[in-house]
Amino acid sequence: ATTARKARPAATEDEAALEFVTDVVAGLEAKPKRIPSKYFYDTAGSLLFEEITQLPEYYPTRVERGILTENAEAIAALLPAGSALVEFGNGSSAKTRIVLRAASELSAYVPVDIAAEFLEEQAETLRHEFPSLNVLPVAADFTRAFDLPASLRTVPRIGFFPGSTIGNFEPPDAAGFLRLAGRSLGAGAVMVIGVDLIKNEAALHAAYNDAADVTARFNLNLLARINRELDGDFDLDSFEHRAFFDHECSRIEMHLVSRAAQRVSIDGHSFDFAEGETIHTENSYKYTVESFRALAREAGWQPIKVWTDSDGWFSLHVLVN
Ligand code: AVJ
Description:
Elements: H1 10-29, E1 33-34, H2 43-53, H3 59-70, H4 72-77, E2 84-88, H5 94-102, E3 108-113, H6 116-129, E4 134-135, E5 138-139, E6 157-161, H7 171-185, E7 190-196, H8 201-207, H9 214-230, E8 239-246, E9 251-258, E10 262-266, E11 269-273, E12 278-285, H10 289-298, E13 302-308, E14 314-320
Parallel strand pairs: 1-12, 2-3, 2-6, 3-4, 3-5, 6-7
Antiparallel strand pairs: 7-14, 8-9, 9-12, 10-11, 13-14
C-alpha cells in the first residue's frame, strides 16, 4: 500500500503542465477556438462537477445511480471473484460504492484519474470505508496508454466507466478508447459502461443550463484555471456560458462566449476575441442503445447486456472483450 500512495514523480507533473499550456495555446490559435474538456477537472472543477451531479436538472447521475442500485446484484454476479475493478476517471466514486458494496469478492479497486490530488483524497476515504479492499489509485490521463499496478498482472480486470464520460469523445475516439481499454484490461475482460441516451431536447437543454448556474461556473472555471496555472489574464465577467443540443451531431456543445472584442494574454502569447466569438469547451455525445452497441462492436467488444431506466434516458452496458 505504501508504494501505491507515493506521489507522482515530478517529471509527470511537469509534463502535464507543459501539455496544458501547449493544448491551450494551440486551441486558442485554432479557428474556431477550442480547449479540450479534460482540462475542466482541476480540484475546483472536480468539486463543481460534483455539485452539477446533485442538480435537479442534471438527470444522468441520478438515473444511472438508480440503474446501478436496481441491478447491483446482477452486476456483481458478472464479476469474477478475486478480480480488480479498474475505473476510468473516478470522480468522487459515489457510483463505485454501489458496485463495491455488492461485489464483496473484489481483490482491488484501481481508480484512474487525471486530478491527482482529488484522486488521493477520494482513495483515502475509500480505504477507511472498505478496510479489506486494496485501493490502488493511478494518476494518469486514461485517454492514453497507462500502466496498471504490477501486483494486478495476474488478476482478471473489470473496466468500469460510468457517468457517460465516453460522451466527451468524438465517436471515432470513443472507439479508439474502447480498443485501448480492451488492450490494457486483457482478453476476456468485462467492461461496465454508462451511456447517456438521446431524449427530448428540453430535458437535454435544462441539464446543461441549470437554474443555479453551476454549469456556467464549471465552464468558466476553465478560464480561472488558465489564469491560475498559466499566468492568464482572462476577465471572467466578459465571458458567458452557452450550451445547446446539436441534432445533426447528436451532441450537447458547450462554449464560452466573449461578450466584447478583447485581447487576452496567456504565458506571453496574446489572443484576440471578436464580440460573440466563442471557445468550444465540450462536446457531450448522446447515443441510442443500438448506436452505442455498434460502436462497441467496432472496437472489438461484444455487448452482452444492457439496462435502461423506465423512461429510456440512460443506459448501462456490459461488454466482454
Ligand atoms: C462528465 C462528461 C459526463 O457530459 O454530462 C456536465 C460533463 N458538462 N455538465 C456530461 C458535464 C457539463 C459530463 N460528463
